[in-house]
Amino acid sequence: MSNIVDIIIPSPGESISSVYIAQWMKQVGEAIAEGETLLEIDSDKASLEVPSPSAGVITELLFGEGDEVDVGAVIARVDASGAAASAAPAAAAPAPAAAPASSAGGKSGPAARQAAKELGVDIAAVSGSGRDGRILRADVEAAAKTSAPAAAPAPAPAPAPAAAVDTGALEERVRMTPLRRTIARRLVEAQQTAAMLTTFNEVDLTNVKAIRKKYQERFVKKHGLKLGFMSFFVKAAIEALKEYPAVNSQIDGNEIIYKRYYNIGVAVSTPKGLMVPVIRNADRLSFSGIEKEIGNLAGKARDGKLAPADFQGGTFTISNGGVFGSLMSTPILNPPQVGILGMHTIQERPVGVNGQIMLRPMMYLAMSYDHRIIDGREAVSFLVRIKQLVEDPERMLIEI
Q1: If phi over 0 gives left and psi between -120 and 50 gives alpha, with beta otherwise, what is residue 304?
Q2: Given a cut of 90, is residue 140 above it in pLDDT?
Q3: Is the peptide bond prior to 335 cis by the omega test (within 30 degrees of 0)?
Q4: pTM of the model
Q5: Which of 122, 132, 303, 371 is catalytic?
Q6: Is residue 78 part of a domain?
Q7: Checking DSSP bridges between strand 316-320 and strand 264-266, what pairing results, if any?
Q8: Burial class (CB in 10 A: 0-12, 13-18, 19+), 217
Q9: What is the pLDDT of residue 204?
Q10: What is the mean pLDDT of residues 247-275?
Q11: Residue 66's domain spans which residues?
Q12: How distant, in Å, are the alpha carbons of 58, 60, 132, 149 from that of 2?
């Protein structure tokens, strides 16, 4: 007698109502142990492994890879009695949107396949180091470094002068990854639901650079990591948020929720796209504590190990386009937050200092805000306060 157990989509975090099926780790008819990973799901905040709550045999997979599924929906069924499924696997589940590529080592996920396409690697020849021989992005990147470049294909014969150009041969159509689709949707929603404006300023980093140069060696010796620029901006943002609480709030219907805690989101780039993990209770951390947490979150992002809890509860976000060379940009709000600070590249520029023209390390700052709750005066004053604190960092130490 069968004992069918429904597998449902768990919630990856607050405000997430749907996810995408990234990869099935088991197929219909295969046995699975309790707690063993059945599939991976993607949301706009994180990737998450979904374990089976029961041991048994997979009898149904109700969705294919790439499908969008509501949180709480039944996505698969397991026969806990261990009886083999009577239906053929092909009839039990819809065809996946993008079936995993097979190889001598195992299967590959969307990130690995995308990397193979970008690096020109034959994924069928890559050995996987993941669970059950699964091919990871790192495996593809390692193969790209060790393999010789592929021979260039023979050039196609030149078309006759009167023949029309076949543009289809010059185009490539690639399905968006589940995470990219979700990010795209939320970015559009952010602009459609908020009255977003951006104000700009610039900051002189002469004193910050002098402090880093003076104390860097001792900082590294004591804490085992470098003193970066981000910790100065996190500290300055917290002080400014305390003075302008509307920037650290959110709109809930006809009410404004003012938050007296400071969880600062820091945008980091990952192979799957831009993600915003959160430094929780950043106001309670020292400069070294902030640097350690940034390093920890960045490392987890690179390894694909960010958990839903790493994204929850953010009250304000800082994005640093300067690491990619951006001179100026307008950051997009991260709802339900109503403010985001954009940092940019440091560039020596001539500026007037006490009546003289001097070269100084300057950075443009951008502050995007929701005009429904933050007035222009508040936004400008908030950004000016950050500028004052960063240009005179001692103020943050003695709180003036």
Answers
A1: left
A2: no
A3: no
A4: 0.67
A5: 371
A6: yes
A7: parallel
A8: exposed
A9: 97
A10: 89
A11: 1-99
A12: 12, 13, 28, 54
Per residue in 318-371, pLDDT (tens digit) is: 999 988 899 999 999 988 999 999 999 999 999 999 999 999 999 999 999 999
* pLDDT for 101 beyond 60: no
Mean pLDDT confidence for 52-71: 90
Is residue 375 part of the annotated active site? The answer reads yes
Give me the amino acid identity at 29.
G
Indicate the residue type of 265: G
Q: Count of domains in the chain? A: 3
**123-128 contacts at long range (C-beta below 8 A, 24 or more positions apart):** 127/103, 128/103
Instruction: Count other Cβ atoms within 10 Å, centred on residue 90.
Output: 8
Q: What angle do CA 160, 162, 163 make, to 5 degrees?
A: 65
Residue 191 CB neighbours (<10 A): 11
Q: What is the DSSP string of 326-358?
A: -S---PPP-TT--EEEEE---EEEEEEETTEEE
Catalytic site residue from 70, 132, 375, 392: 375
Distance CA 213, CA 219 (A): 10
Structure confidence at residue 229 (pLDDT): 94
44 is catalytic: no
Upper half-sphere CA count for residue 373 (Cβ side, 13 Å): 24
Q: Assess whether 234 and 287 both reside in one domain.
A: yes
CATH number assigned to the domain comprising residue 133:
4.10.320.10
Q: Please indicate, yes or no, if residue 383 is contained in any of the structural domains.
A: yes
Give the CATH number for residue 286: 3.30.559.10
Q: What is the pLDDT of residues 193-212, one digit of tens each?
A: 899 999 999 999 999 999 99
Asked if residue 203 lies in contact with residue 390, where contact means CB atoms within 8 angstroms, the answer is yes
Helices (H), the chain: 89-92, 110-119, 137-146, 178-193, 206-223, 230-243, 287-302, 376-391, 394-398
